[in-house]
Amino acid sequence: MVGVWPGDGPGSGRGGEEYERAVGAIAAGLRGAGPAEAPRRLCEVAVDLLPVDGASVSLRGDSMPLQLAASGGVAARLAQLQATLGDGPCHHVLRTGAPVLARDLEDGSCADRWPVFTQQALGSGVRAVYALPLGSTAVCVGTLDLYSASPGSLTAHQLHVALLVAGVMTVALTDLPFDARDADDGWLSGLAADHDRVHQAVGMIMAQLGVGADEALARLRGDAFAHDLTVLEAALDVVARRRRFDMP
């Protein structure tokens, strides 16, 4: 289930023309895209190039991954679900820096590792998940998660294409001009604001219950899942004082 980095490259028999087509498709998909658009465009390119039905990209956060973009509603929901649960393939990637290739979520090993995520993903029509690191095994800055409605493995060539998209995604996220990172309407400023709200909510729960940060975050995640909310949505309820944890 946990993938390894393939050893063959563009010039070792995988088909130079197919590789060049993938490079061209990525370039075409990014043409004219600003920094805020690039992650979503690359998710859409991944769906076009690979036998998958959805893609999402999440950044590493202090306490949970932060969903940045997705190709569609199901992919966005599953990325948010992993953040809410604190579990799922992307969390393994963030911990280890190695890809996870879950070929069939109906396999018992998937249910053992991620019981709630697997149940929810299957209920959404997803049978396979391929989660790839952004960055390297030494420094993983996020994940590219690919979702397929059909079970099965990626071929060596398909995995190389997926890794190529992940590499371009990494550059798009980490090699931005300084002013693009700090722009008022930039994606990073929006993510930072969302992250701050979650931390603020965790602090309020700590004060209400007299518990530590890990327990407070676990309570927030549990409450979000119980009410079919994302962690951010649950955090906003806490910050707005629509939800308290020291009251029945």
From TrEMBL:
The keyword Cell wall biogenesis/degradation does not apply. SMART domains: ANTAR (SM01012), GAF (SM00065). InterPro entries: ANTAR, GAF, GAF-like_dom_sf, GAF_ANTAR, WH-like_DNA-bd_sf. It comes from the Bacteria. The keyword Metal-binding does not apply. Keywords: Transcription, Transcription regulation. This is GAF and ANTAR domain-containing protein. It comes from Streptomyces werraensis. The lineage of its organism: Bacteria, Bacillati, Actinomycetota, Actinomycetes, Kitasatosporales.
